[in-house]
Amino acid sequence: MQHRVIARTLGKFFLVIGLAMLLPLAWGLPGPPRDLAAFLIPSAIGIGGGAALYLAFRNIRREIARRDALALVTLSWIGAALLGALPFLISGAVDNFTDAWFEAMSGFTTTGATVIEDVTALSREMLFWRSFTQWLGGMGIIVLFIAILPYVGMGVRRMFKGEVPGPVKEGLTPRIQQTARTLWLIYLGLSVVQAALLMYYGMTFHDAVCHTCTTIATGGFSTRNESVGWYASFPIEAVLVAVMAIAGANFSLHYRLLTRRSLSAYLRDSEFRVYAGILLGATLLITANLTLAAPAGGSLLNNARNAGFTVVSIMTTTGFGTADFDQWPSFSRLLLVALMVIGGSAGSTGGGIKVVRLIVLVKNAYSGTYRVFRPHAVKQPKLNGRPVSDDVVQSVNTFFVIFIFIFVAATLVMTGLGIDPVTAFSAVAATLGNIGPGLGLVGPTATYAWVPPPGKWVLSACMLFGRLELFTVLCLFIPSIWKR
User: Fold this and answer.
1) What are the φ/ψ torsions at residue 382 (nearest 5 degrees)?
2) What is the mean pLDDT of residues 417-443?
3) Angle in degrees, CA 76, 81, 87, rounded to 5
4) What confidence score (pLDDT) does residue 297 get?
5) What is the DSSP letter of 383?
6) 71 neighbors 1 (Cβ within 8 angstroms)
7) Residue 47: is its pLDDT beyond 90?
8) Element (H or E) spanning 17, and its range?
9) Helix spans in 343-469 (H)
10) How confident is the model at residue 148, as a pLDDT?
11) Residues 258, 70: Cα–Cα separation, whole Å
């Protein structure tokens, strides 16, 4: 491992995070001295420590190796959570470091699980910070880092590939730094449009900005204990559904829409068609289940409204709520858990295993079954009309096996802490998939405050694994990778 190269790059990264923490500081002016100190102190640590690291190793000009790039991505996320936890702790929003770490990790990984039982008791700057951590983590702190800081060498590409979610990472432009800037311009543009629409339909400027930060990032933190249900506004829900659905799709498709002024890219993309089909199909199934199954019952329009919002919120791994879906019939709840695992599209801000991986898994299973009966037949999975390479198929299969292993192992640990199976299972699904709310004691009207400290650390690890898609984190624990 090239420790000095990593230290220099982390110095730049901490400098960026330290500067970002000045925004919530300004947001809260004038405010209680304790809340202002909650951002001033961590910001000074980030800026001062980052500058010191960079200056100490500024003359190092070595290129970042692949293994160092993977380590940098993971260490950057851990570092962001460490710095991001300090405002929660210093301000008194939580009373111990475990809870502060959990809340910060939930923010930067855009999970949306919270240990704060009354968010309305938080100051404006703390509410903004919770949302801002998700906005930063949504498109990826590393992508932001690449976009605003010049860096030379293939190390940039390796860091970019380590952070951008999905098995297939199509470059939008020939240069990685230009690609990162393009992604962030789209991200920022959608944020501005959404905030304007939310204010138009009745949200205050503060609430509109906070909800925008957590919608485009598919994070789900809200400024209200009742989440979006507090507003009881169909126009607001419609705006959020639209933005969540956009954020859950591949951002390269949005780029093509802007540059080519055509919707054909969406229609030709296999993953998007399946993604849209699952959203529509799940909405129809849950609407029917809510309407026909007692005691849920209710008007068809109201059931369709709640089902549509919840399906989009869960599958895009946002986690906003307008209804307590833990009270819905078993069929609807289990279908929502399945959507938690599937997640959004590759190249989106959503979590989960990603729709494209599901497609590859199903097509590979079909090809394998076909070859059992016709051993000499050539049957290779295709995506968008092109054969999927054996390397991609193997990567997807490996990812799925590791995902299931971590899922089962974490669930067993949680049940070992005395947590009932439904709560443990859904808590792991909700954190590994970066969703937030689950079922049982971590349902949409509950928090994770009651979870024992060891359980919070396990679930925090699940958040990190889910956000960085397993491989990036796991490489740190394979000794042979670090041998020369």
Assistant:
1) -125, 150
2) 93
3) 135
4) 61
5) E
6) yes
7) yes
8) helix 3-20
9) 355-373, 390-416, 421-432, 453-467
10) 55
11) 31
Please list, in sequence order, all residues whose beta carbon lies within 8 angstroms of the beta carbon of residue 86, skipping any fewer than 6 positions away: 38, 41, 42, 45, 100
What's the domain range around 393? 364-482
pTM of this prediction?
0.90
Answer yes or no: is 408 within a domain: yes
Place of tokens 């949504």: 138
> How many structural domains are present in the chain?
1
Q: Could you report how far apart the first and last alpha carbons of the chain are, in Å?
A: 8
CB 348 within 8 A of CB 249: yes
Domain membership flag for residue 425: yes
pLDDT band at 315 (very low <50, low <70, confident <90, very high): very high
Q: What is the pLDDT of residue 162?
A: 52
What is the rounded CA–CA span in Å between residue 114 and residue 246? 25
Find out whether 74 and 105 touch, Cβ atoms under 8 Å.
Answer: no
Q: What is the pLDDT of residues 360-397, one digit of tens each?
A: 999 888 888 887 787 776 677 778 778 888 888 888 88
Distances in Å between the Cα of 446 and the Cα atoms of 94, 332, 421, 450 are 17, 19, 17, 10
Comparing CA positions, the residue from 196, 193, 195, 154 lying closest to residue 176 is 154
pLDDT interval class at 150 (50, 70, 90): low
CA dihedral 343, 344, 350, 354 (to 10 degrees): 70
174 band by pLDDT with thresholds 50, 70 and 90: low
Range 384-389, long-range pairs (CB < 8 A, 24+ positions): 384/268, 384/269, 384/270, 388/360, 388/363, 388/364
Alpha-carbon span 352 to 134, nearest angstrom: 16
Q: For residues 447 and 244, what is the distance between their CA atoms, to the nearest angstrom?
A: 22
d(CA 38, CA 200): 32
Residue 72 pLDDT > 90:
no
State how far the Cα of 466 lies from the Cα of 461, in Å rounded to an integer: 9
Query: Which residues 6+ apart lie within 8 Å of 426 measured at CB?
Result: 337, 340, 438, 439, 440, 442
Residue 149 sits at φ, ψ, to 5 deg, of -120, 130
- What's the rounded Cα separation, in Å, for the pair 50 and 17? 9
- Separation between Cα atoms, residue 72 and residue 428, nearest integer Å: 26
Which residues sit opposite 386 in a β-bridge? 383
Q: Is residue 447 part of a domain?
A: yes
Nearest to 23 by CA among 99, 133, 107, 122: 133
Residue 430 within a domain: yes
Overall average pLDDT of the 281-296 stretch = 86
Residue 193, token pair as written in the block: 């449009």
- Confirm if 326 and 443 have CB atoms less than 8 A apart: yes
Which residue in this structure is represented by tokens 């049957």? 379
In Å, how far are 27, 117, 442 from 122, measured between CA atoms? 14, 10, 21
In this prediction, residue 61 carries a pLDDT of: 65
